[in-house]
Design brief:
single chain; 5-stranded mixed β-sheet; binds 2'-deoxycytidine-5'-triphosphate; binds magnesium ion; DNA-binding
DNA sequence: ATCCTCCCCTAC
DNA sequence: TAAGGTAGGGGAGGAT
């Protein structure tokens, strides 16, 4: 199941998709689908339980482990988890410093529910007298449960989870304090519990227990499980079955049988909307003098409530709680106090996103884009703007709640909210609350503990992202059926534009759509109808819940007059507060302020918006669907690092995420912005569990010349960006990576074609037009002359025949037309440099051969034996013969570096990014060259010793930067004895007092030095060292290309030079480097003004014609 | 003037 | 326990 396939899927059919765009790319694991499908079917009526699933199991590092291995691993890990748990700071004690007599020594209480005195006071008593206070229940740590009173529904569960622990009234503590000794708790037992034995010793967890505070039967809505079947994971840990058999979470499959059955059941119930009877009964609305039925159509709130809802399925299957899984699916990286942080879970980023509601709604749009690739209708909208139009705004009522209680009609009139947790003391956020709950003040975004305080009998349901996705799809299918001008706002909300000619009665259309929505989804929607986006949206607010409302233009002013400014979209907390300080609370008051004042105070655009909105004016058009401007990922929860390694690991995963999202959107980006949330100095631990608390928001960005989606490049960039923060990783509370300056990956570059030579050439020629826009022509032609000279000079030593004669291009950009991809003319076969072509890696050769319909190979065989063979340097690189290392931390000689590991996570431990730990060794990746005199000593230090010696011997010959003398260098005697070392002597003599002209080509000092060395080694036949220094150059070039705007000319020069050297020398062990060169140049040169240099590597004789056809942009 | 970077604000 | 993301708009201030 790939992203592209889902994009091409017919919108009517339920294609496999994932709400988490990453997961579909990553897992590609169809093995789990059978399993998960079954599970889903049975889960349906209960909603998904806490999360983990076969997908996550299959992605875990244990995916291939046999059961037994996994099981024993889990056993060990749970033991460790418990040990951690023991040490965890979720409990408070005051050992040693208690100022009261330690009468509660050995007593550890957990307070359940409301108590008198409050749990905080009890905590105070405990700490004062040597006892412990547990915020969260654990049978291992807690010795007594303190409880004043519990509703009956809780008692049963309390018995269960208490597992024989005494449940005692607070008076026990008070009396003990009063008596100044520990009294027996027996007389203080809670009456309701006395005499009972625990006949249900197994319970999901305290967490799960809490969720059944309000129960229907004994079903726990949160876990979707009969309580009696739940095991306490904190005791036993996850079972193997847990890890292997639960259903997927990020959602993919919409064609499951259940949805069919459900659809059928819906259609079995006939419904009707009696739109003729509607009037505006809404109180708010009436107060606004808008109650005329003729002008304002509003369905009676009750009228749709009466519509039949799909018949509820009885709760059927139970699902193993995810609690166990969570404790098992994370590996332990070391002792830690946080159980849900980056410290514990190496897959934190991925796992986190799977459970984040905000991630779900935040990424919904990109999924929608794939379902309904846009721009079909956006142009017609512009045209249609001449006509009179109405806007309908449709928004699902308390979306998340509606969806999860579709099959619980008995809860429709009871307060219900969706939340991760049902802990009445928890800091989990309410995602959505239904309207009965809102009557109690429960709102999206408040903590569950506050919600429970406002409404103690609030029923909490867990998330079911899969179901939200499914309903959203149904919603948009319906909308698209009725209208082709739709502007998606979110998964539960859209604007529809209708022209008067198309639809005579927008209100009737709205009622039809709403009826269809409730019939299809089992959830109600509300609609607002008005003349523009703003007023339609405001009308929806009036209409909710389950109603619709029209605000005709003549009623706009009246309606707005008393409307609180906060109700206007775009005015949030901050603007509201600022206006309030100016005594502005309503739109009517806002209208009194002249536009100029507003603009002066809030900025031009914002002032304009305020002025317009307060008058009901909104000039935005419906449906102008712009392509996305940025793609990013961030995590600001559970982010805690102890050391650089944790941090780097996290960052690299974030990069992977971002890279995959870019690829998922088929875009590449040029600007990378790393955001870091840094704990404020004065901020203590956040109120919210694992939250980021009060933070400073920092960001640094970097723009590279060539757009990319490549994870390795992104990682290098990100690493470099991170270094620029100079931040203590312990202060980091959140990080995000955003990519902007996006360019869409055109079809020619997609798929396997992407790295082919043909597409490279084609894209290069197509995009060469843009070269005119880059840089000034004067500068180009000037530097072109220099470049040519220098390159001739420099390359002459290696490969005089590779460069053809220079072509000075006459600049005539105005006449220039870039050939299209199709027009790209293949060079004549006779124009190819056969020596170079022959030396290409086999598959590159074969690719070119294919381009020429196989004629190339014939030509080659004819000319065989003539040319290049004798020019080749015979290289017989023995194993490890090239001491190379680009690893800052590694100075071992003979270090063979695996390409994949060039920038591994743990290599960036030192350097400026690691403030306060070790700044004396600069981070190589932080180096950004700017001038010839700037020699990066750290780079030099990373070189193998022998090469370093050579450099020091060479440098003084013409220009030795001062800082080189700082290098602490002990010339190894071994190096002196090496026969290869002779090269440096001769080279030194060669260059002494006579620096070659081409040195100016390498403005970047490292490349410059490397180039000198390469030349030296080449002359001396030191092939091992030559190979090593070429790799160093390649590595430097990569860094340059990725990171520097200034350095990419240098980098291109280096790479072209390198490529020629590699190819010409045919260093067989460096085949991979040739590929890297090619890839870099392909990526890079489509927009390079130095394009022709790359061309010349393969098509040197084409220079003149290329130069002509590509106008003045070429400088060779 | 216009662009760029580093923020802040807003909505779902 | 708990999963505070994502993307666009826009302002301030500096570089050009
Ligand atoms: N702070 C928020 C706001 C919204 N949502 C999610 C849950 C909502 O159900 C969904 C849609 O947002 P709405 O603003 O449309 O809110 P509701 O649909 O829940 O209620 P309403 O009836 O007011 O539209 O987005 C969320 O998780 N957290
Ligand atoms: Mg809604
Ligand atoms: Mg909404």
């Amino acid at each position: 199941m790939s992203f592209n396939s889902s994009r091409s899927a017919d919108s009517g059919s339920k294609s496999k998709r994932s709400f988490n765009s990453i997961s579909s790319n990553r897992s590609g694991n169809s093995n789990s689908s059978d399993n998960s499908k079954k599970k889903k079917t049975t889960q349906k009526t209960l909603g998904m339980a806490w999360g983990s699933n076969s997908r996550s199991a299959s992605r875990s590092s244990f995916r291939n482990s046999p059961f037994s291995d996994f099981g024993s691993y889990m056993a060990v890990k749970n033991q460790k988890l418990q040990e951690q748990f023991e040490a965890e700071a979720t409990s408070s004690s005051n050992s040693g410093s208690s100022n009261g007599k330690p009468i509660f020594q050995g007593v550890s209480i957990f307070v359940d529910g409301f108590t008198v005195p409050s749990s905080q006071e009890l905590k105070g008593y405990m700490l004062k007298h040597g006892g412990r206070f547990e915020n969260y229940f654990s049978r291992h740590r807690v010795t007594h449960i303190i409880c004043s009173n519990l509703p009956d529904s809780k008692i049963k569960n309390l018995r269960s989870f208490s597992a024989g622990l005494p449940v005692v009234k607070p008076a026990w503590l008070l009396d003990s304090v009063g008596a100044n000794k520990l009294l027996s708790w027996v007389p203080y037992q809670l009456d309701q519990v006395v005499g009972e034995t625990h006949n249900q010793p197994k319970l999901s967890s305290f967490f799960a227990l809490k969720s059944s505070a309000v129960s229907v039967g004994s079903t726990n809505y949160v876990t979707g499980q009969e309580n009696s079947e739940i095991e306490d994971p904190s005791l036993k840990g996850g079972t193997i079955n847990d890890a292997d058999s639960s259903g997927p979470c990020g959602y993919t499959d919409h064609s499951k049988p259940c949805s069919r059955d459900w659809d059928d059941s819906v259609h079995g119930n006939s419904t009707s909307v009696r739109s003729g009877e509607v009037t505006c009964h809404d109180g708010k609305f009436s107060e606004g003098n808008l109650s005329e039925p003729s002008n304002c159509l509003m369905l009676d709130k009750g009228s749709v409530d009466d519509l039949d809802q799909p018949s509820p399925c009885p709760p059927s299957a139970s699902v193993v709680s995810d609690n166990a899984k969570k404790s098992t699916s994370s590996a332990i990286t070391g002792p830690s106090k946080q159980h849900h942080s980056t410290l514990v879970d190496p897959n934190f980023v991925e796992n986190y996103f799977k459970k984040s509601r905000l991630h779900f709604i935040g990424t919904w749009r990109s999924r929608y884009r794939k379902r309904f690739p846009s721009s079909k209708y956006s142009s017609s909208i512009v045209n249609a703007s001449a006509q009179r139009t109405s806007v309908i705004h449709v928004d699902m009522d308390c979306f998340f709640v509606s969806v999860v209680i579709r099959n619980h009609p008995e809860l429709r009139d009871k307060p219900v909210a969706v939340c991760h947790s049902d802990n009445p003391r928890g800091t989990a956020e309410i995602s959505s609350a239904n309207y009965p709950a809102r009557d109690y003040g429960v709102r999206a975004g408040i903590f569950v503990r506050d919600a429970k305080a406002l409404c103690p009998h609030l029923t909490i349901f867990p998330y079911d992202f899969e179901a939200y996705e499914e309903v959203a799809d149904q919603l948009y299918d319906i909308l698209h059926k009725h209208c082709n001008r739709i502007q998606a706002v979110s998964c539960d909300e859209a604007f529809i534009e209708v022209t008067d000619s198309e639809v005579e009665d927008p209100q009737f259309l709205a009622s039809v759509i709403r009826k269809e929505i409730v019939e299809t989804t089992g959830c109600t929607a509300s609609a607002g109808i008005s003349g523009n986006l703003l007023m339609a949206r405001l009308a929806t607010k009036v209409a909710k819940p389950n109603g619709q409302c029209c605000i005709p233009s003549e009623k706009v002013d009246d309606y707005l007059n008393d409307l609180p400014i906060k109700s206007l979209p775009g005015i949030g907390r901050v603007l509201e507060e600022k206006l309030k300080r100016k005594q502005i609370q309503t739109c009517g008051q806002l209208r009194m302020i002249p536009k100029e004042s507003l603009q002066k105070e809030f900025g031009v655009k914002t002032g304009d918006m305020l002025w317009n909105y307060s008058r009901g004016v909104d000039n935005r058009l419906v449906g102008v669907i712009q392509e996305s401007k940025s793609v990013g990922a961030e995590v600001n929860w559970g982010v805690r690092f102890n050391d650089m390694k944790d941090c780097q690991h996290f960052l690299m995963n974030l990069c992977k995420e971002v890279s995959l999202r870019l690829q998922g959107c088929a875009v590449e980006g040029r600007t990378f912005t790393l955001k870091i949330k840094k704990r404020r100095n004065d901020a203590e631990e956040p109120v919210k569990y694992m939250g980021c608390g009060d933070c400073e928001n920092l960001s640094h960005s970097m723009t590279v010349p060539m757009a990319t989606d490549d994870v390795d490049i992104i990682r290098r960039l990100t690493t470099q960006l991170f270094g620029s923060f100079h931040i203590d990783v312990k202060d980091i509370r959140g990080m995000g990576l955003q990519v902007s300056k996006l360019e869409s990956v055109d079809t020619a570059k997609q798929g396997h074609e992407r790295n082919s030579i043909r597409s490279w050439l084609a894209s290069a020629s197509a995009s060469s037009k843009q070269q005119h826009e880059i840089g000034s022509p004067a500068k180009e032609s000037a530097s072109g002359e220099i470049d040519k000279q220098h390159i001739d000079e420099s390359l002459g030593r290696f490969s005089t025949d590779l460069m053809g004669p220079a072509v000075q291009i006459g600049t005539n950009p105005s006449n220039f037309e870039a050939p299209s991809n199709q027009d790209f003319a293949l060079p004549d076969l006779g124009d190819l440099d056969l020596g170079v072509v022959e030396s290409l890696p086999p598959d590159l050769f074969s690719e070119i051969n294919d381009i020429y319909d196989g004629k190339l190979i014939n030509l080659m065989s004819k000319k065989k034996g003539k040319s290049v063979a004798q020019e080749r340097v015979q290289v017989a690189l023995k194993e490890g013969g090239g001491p190379f290392c680009c690893d800052p931390a590694c100075v071992n000689e003979n270090c063979v570096v695996d390409k994949e590991e060039k920038y591994p996570v743990d290599k960036i431990q030192s350097g400026p990014s690691n403030v306060g730990i070790s700044t004396e060794v600069p981070n190589k990746l932080d180096f950004m060259p700017s001038s010839l005199s700037q020699v990066d000593t750290s780079v030099l230090q990373q070189l193998p010793e022998e090469l370093r010696v050579d450099i020091l011997q060479v440098l003084p010959a013409h220009r030795q930067p001062e800082c080189v003398s700082d290098i602490n260098l002990d010339p190894p005697s071994k190096a002196k004895k090496s026969p290869e070392n002779q090269a440096s002597v001769s080279s030194k003599e060669l260059w002494a007092g006579n620096p070659p002209e081409w040195v100016a080509m390498f403005k970047h000092s490292n490349c410059y030095i490397f180039r000198i060395l390469a030349d030296m080694y080449y002359r001396s036949g030191s092939t091992g060292r030559l190979s090593a220094i070429l790799q160093c150059t390649l590595s430097e070039s990569q860094t340059l290309l990725d990171a520097s705007n200034d350095g990419w000319d240098d980098a291109i020069c280096c790479l072209c030079d390198l490529l020629k050297q590699y190819i010409k020398l045919r260093v067989e062990t460096d085949i991979e480097e040739i590929y890297v060169c090619f890839r870099l140049l392909k990526r890079f040169t489509t927009k390079s003004k130095l394009l022709s240099q790359v061309y010349n590597v393969i098509f040197p004789h084409l220079q003149a014609s290329v130069g002509e056809s590509y106008g003045g942009s070429l400088n060779i």
